[in-house]
Fold these 3 entries.
Entry 1:
Amino acid sequence: MNIADEVKRMNTIRYPDRNERSSPSNPSGRIVRALALALSMCASAAVHAAIPASQRQFLLNFHVQMYGQYWDSDAGWNGPAGTECSWYGVVCSPDQSTIVGLELYDNWMYGTLPPLSALPDLRVLNLGANFFSGTFPSLAGMAQLELLDLSQHPMYVVNHSPGMTGSLPALGGFVHLHTFRVRNNALTGTLPAFGVLPALRNYDVSGNALTGTIPALTGLGSLELFNVARNQLEGSAPVIAGLASLLEVDFSQNRLTALGGSFDGLAALTGFSAADNLIEGTLPSLAGAPNLQALNLARNRLTGGVAGLTACPRLRGIDVAGNHFEGPLPDFSALPAVEYFHGNDNAFEGRIPPIAGLTALIYFNVSNNRLTGTIPSFTGMAQLGELRLDRNRLTGPLPSFDGLHALSFFSASHNYLTGEIPVIARIGLVEFDVAYNRLSGAPPVPPSFLDPGLSGLCPNALEPQPSLLWDTVTGTTPWYRDCAGAPDTLLADGFDADP
């Protein structure tokens, strides 16, 4: 299949959010549209002037190389000389003498960019959410650049778009640049030193194949968003303390081995992710980031405790799963906004703190730890959709499930729970697993929404009452086949005797 046929095929597919392609998915879109509107209003009052012939030729070449006939819009393109400033996405200076912007975000373009040297006055190059190939263009001589977005479309994998190759340009001297986004390409090499970039607010090179270490961020006083996720970066994360404008940071899915020190002076920070690295050490103090709302440190090699999480009362999402954290779980009464807590696959000990006051909680997973004591009450947790407590050392009865109308997934297998299973028929459970405990009595009537094969009742000491529905949802016929000799089976599965 040649490239033209590939573009035709791609043009039959439409991204689900295309009607909003220049708003929420493009944080700087409002800035760009405001610039375009202001310039075009000025231009409409001016007589037609001619842009340089070299710029017109660039536009003609650009239309050919990016398969303009298949764009969502190429209104006006290839029109007569003097009309270029009215072509869709072309932004000119107020006197229409030079091109200062190309605003073609999410326009279903595909191909290799021609050299940009013909556009020395370019301030905005907003071509993100398209499909690119070829090498990254040179930015030499483009000192006026304010925004560059050459990110691949979210459907680049589906459409087999290779992305741009080559290395990242050095940005020293781009004193007006506030946005640099090239995510989801195939760029290689190292991150060039940033130097002093006083205007830079948004830097996103995620989803490439970059190597080496992350340079210092100390010259980026206006930085708000910094994303280098999904590369092959090594060493320590850079120091971010003192970057007072910083809102979100993403170091995830690299090969980093250390966090970059404290969170001091980060009052604006709302999101921090360093998941899926090789980070060792302990959780740093978060007191300098009191407005943090999302923290993701999952699947690293962190040790120590997590009591410091309570310094961030606005936390909504916490993911510390897959580390070596120990000691007690955090005091959730100090985290009233929590919606998601992933604490599974650690070495947490002690009781599960009260969680009934977390009225916004949707997901709670503390499986595969060393937790003891009884399961706390779920009263008032109307938003709770998934609760996973399996593979701990919990004792006592299962609490009431009354009022948990949103609960779809519940797992408390491989514990030391006793007593009868409470009523569960009135909630919309899809999965219910309480196998490998010491529960007794007759099994309750199962909810009608349970998926086949996802639930578990045995081993336990339950009464063997026939139930075709329990046979179906446990994937075992009869469902009680493996319930005989529950205590012996439980200990043989690798669990210690009663704590």
Entry 2:
Amino acid sequence: LPEKVTLQLSDGTTKDAPVTWTSTTYDKNTPGTYEFVGAYDLPTGVTGDKVGITMNVVLKDLTAPDVTITSVKGMKDIIVRKGTKLESIYLPKMVILNLSDGTTKVVPVTWTSNDYNKDKPGMYKVIGSYDLPVGVTGNKVDAVINIVVKDKNNKPKDKYPKKYKNTGNHGKKVEKEVKEIPVPETPVAEDTPKAAKTVNTISYVKGYPDGTFKPQKNISRAEAATMFAKLLTLDAIPDLDMNAKDVEKGAWYEDPIAYLTSKGFIKGYEDGSIQPNTDITRGEFAQMLSKFLKPVDTKTPFKDADNHWAAEAIRIAYGNGIIKGYEDGSFKPDQKITRAEAVTMLNRAFNKYIEMEKLNQLAAEKALTTFTDVPEDFWAYKEILVAANKI
């Protein structure tokens, strides 16, 4: 309640006077309208009767019913071959919680298993640990994924042949013997006596010579392909030939585009072009990523994605926790993607991650590549540094 009131005086002037408020009926536990009466002293030089002042206070019950978790969105079993280490299995970084008010929440999750045995065929449960979202109360519901270990003798026919064939868009076949690098669930190199090579040991994007990153700059289809291929192959992209009318032989982007085309991650256009220098849209980027992600059975909240040509890809990316959309409930699939948005999605997809405390420590020790136009309070500060550094 105001500490002062302004009095209108008969000579046309005003004076402020301290005021105290009282109410004989106010009950903090009962919603309703309560009248408060103000008491004040006449200012010096003012005579006559006081004018009464009152103020109404409306007390409302803003208590909402408790929102609890009813279930965790079901996740499909993961089938792996005997000998597959738990840490090399791609597990979703997000789970979808179904809430009692009919809404859903997507939350980060970490997975553990007490009995997983890579050398023994069978079914093993991994349990997800997550924090209750803000505004949600009650008990957590278990997040569970079954991992099925199958004997190597039952493995399917190799889907990645040693010989790469690219018919291009002109019917001309190009064959080249290459050392094939299969697309892993989570990229992990062969075991070594010391440490395994993972996505955290590579950087897949660089800044500009002037020390900037240009986080709001759009990226081309060639740049997007290069980032993605570096992560898929742990920065060991095979030397391949690409037969498309607008992909020059020996161009810096030829190998990444050829590799992704051979794996079905990207396609050309009907006119036989790839359009490597054309900026890629958010929908096209989601389409490329969706080929790497696991299928999910979920809907998106994006009002502009349901009837879009990339609707299925956007749904898969959303269900895997890779995309979040905008505050207005849209995804903007036809909007050009920025460098900051691209590395954020890629980091989530490949689980390229570091604790903020460790990141700050490395930055303080000047052990990181940083950028003059990416301050610490920039929304994608962490994601950009993770993408640009071997951490």
Entry 3:
Amino acid sequence: MFLIIDALKDMETTNTPKIHRPRRSKADIEAAIQKAAITQIKKKGFARALVTDIVKRAKIEPIVFYNRFKNLDEFYDSFVKRYDYWISDLTRDLNKDLDTEEGYVGALHTVFDALLEDNLMAELLRWEIAEGTPITERTAKLREIDLSMLIEQFEQKFAAHDIDGVAISALMIAGIYFMVLHKDRSAFGGIDINTDEGRKRISATFAQIGRLLYRAHGSQERRKRLETCLRKEGLSPDAIERCLAELND
């Protein structure tokens, strides 16, 4: 009797179709790992995402991950190099129009909007601030190198004037970073950039800063031209100084 039952079980097992998972290519697996990492980092941040989270979401065995990367740090090193590209592209785009007030204001908008839309980049900035690792130190330095082109351009534009365009812009960018990273904690200065009203206030402020910065630059340019004209007309240095002092009153 038992032999018959065992035989029937064997027949049932034999006749049960096996489920074959589709074989994934190397490219498919790598794409799955990248996609899973993006999801987990956006959810937990770089510091709290785990290999177990990534492999589970990518639907792979841990050995598949470790055949490619020695550990999570090595994966992050590769991952960050791949996804930290946007600041370089952004810098190249911003460089085109920074010589005008409209271009400058547009550049601030671009940085603000890009960080609001790209949670992954915001998490990378958060990680840089929170932890000093070889990866975060490298990305911070590379970002500074990328931004050095903008700094040089501003130094040249405002070099002859009593305006520190670089420091003003650094404070603006740092403020954008902080407000974006802080937006899910609380409003700052009563401004909640999670709302349309809050974003509009920031947008209006970009325009105000651009107007103050570039019009101050234009005012000093006109002052220089006036000084040159008065000198050509034969006014003495003292007379020129008195005339220019009138402009400041």
